[in-house]
Every structure is written in C-alpha cells, then in structure tokens.
Amino acid sequence: MTAAVSAPPVIPSAEVSDGLPPVRFRDLVAAEWIKMRSLRSTLWALGFITVFVIVCAAGASYSGYRNFPGMDPETQQARQFALHDAFPSTGYLSLMLVAGSLGAIAVVSEYSSGMIRTSTVAVPARSSLVMAKVTTVTVLWTVLGTVMTLGSYGVSQLILGARDVWLPLDRPGTVQALWRLRCWRRSVRRSGWGWVS
C-alpha cells in the first residue's frame, strides 16, 4: 500500500492575495506621523515646550539687559553672557524631559489603545516599525530644535540689541556655540529615542 503524499500548502503572498503592493518604509513613517499628530496632547506639549524655551531665552536676555550697566567693563566688552542668555539651561532641561516623555508616548500610546496588535499584524517586521518611529521622532525634534534655536537666538538679539550687545554670526565663538547647541540637541533627540526602542 502506498501512502498518499500531500504537498505542502501554498501560502499566497500579500501581492497575490489582495492585489496591494507591499508596505514601504515611507508608508510606515507616514502612518507613525499620523499617529503622533492625532494625539492632541502631543501637539499641545510640542507647542508649549517651544514657547517655553523661547520665553526662557527672553527672560534671561531681559535680565542681561537690566544688569548690563552694572557689569564690569571686561564683561561688557566680551559679551559672552549674551550667548548664555540666548540659550538658558532652564528651558533646555525642561526640553529634555518633554523629549523623553514624547518618545515614550510614541510607543506607549499604541499599547494603551491596543493599536500595537494592528501595527504588528500589518507590519510583521518589528524592526521596520521601530525604525519608522525613530525616524518620525528624529525629524520632529530636528525641525522643532531648529525653530527653538533660531527663535531663542533671535529673541535674545532683539532684547540685547537695545543695549548694543549684538552677537552677530561672524563674531568668533557664536557659530561654535550654536554648533555645540545643535550637538547637545542631538543628545536630547536620542533621549526621546531611548523610549522608542
């Protein structure tokens, strides 16, 4: 007696079964962006922290504006206090807390709503899903970091300019300080990534 040999079942690919193309990485990034911006609290937090950082720079610059006549002549000539006034630590320490929290929200919101099941069924490759989250968080904080840096620098220059304490970009040390701040912001962005991965 011969045993019947059964062929392994043929599992149709996603392209054949539903006629749709496979999921592309940019589609994953677009989906993550929609998920991130659909939470109203996220938009409020991003707006609040942007305004808060710029207001902290305005407050520190106004303090420098008021204290400028009482400073010794060497400090007045060096004008390095103006860079500190443009980028005070109060605003940026708060920024680190918000960046970490919003990075956590990028993941936790899916688990709390049950959306993670849908996401992993739609995209079984978990690494692609996580990289889409990291890309979304990175682009978001890069754009906001640029807005905060330019806003803080611009506001401080407007306030301190009334005392003729300009720090133009061609002055030695200004561009280096802005570059260091950009590198520091990269570490803030990575604190948001830590919660994503």
Describe the overall structure:
It is a single chain. The chain is an all-alpha fold. It is built from nine helices and no strands. It has helices spanning about 15-20, 25-40, 40-65, 75-80, 80-85, 90-115, 115-120, 125-160, 175-195. Helix 2 (about 25-40) crosses helix 8 (about 125-160) and helix 6 (about 90-115) packs parallel to helix 9 (about 175-195). The longest helix has about 35 residues, at about 125-160.
How are the SSEs ordered, and which strands pair?
Blueprint: H1 14-18, H2 25-38, H3 40-67, H4 73-78, H5 81-86, H6 89-113, H7 115-122, H8 126-160, H9 174-196
Features:
197 residues, 9 helices
Overall 3D form: elongated
Secondary structural class = mainly alpha
| Strand segment count | 0
Cα gyration radius (Å): 25 Å
Strand content: under 5%
Low-pLDDT stretches: 10-17
Would you tell me the overall average pLDDT? 78
SSE string, helices as H and strands as E: HHHHHHHHH
Kindly report how far apart the N and C termini lie: 57 Å
Classify the helix fraction into a percent range. Answer: over 70%
The major β-sheet equals: none
How many helical elements? 9
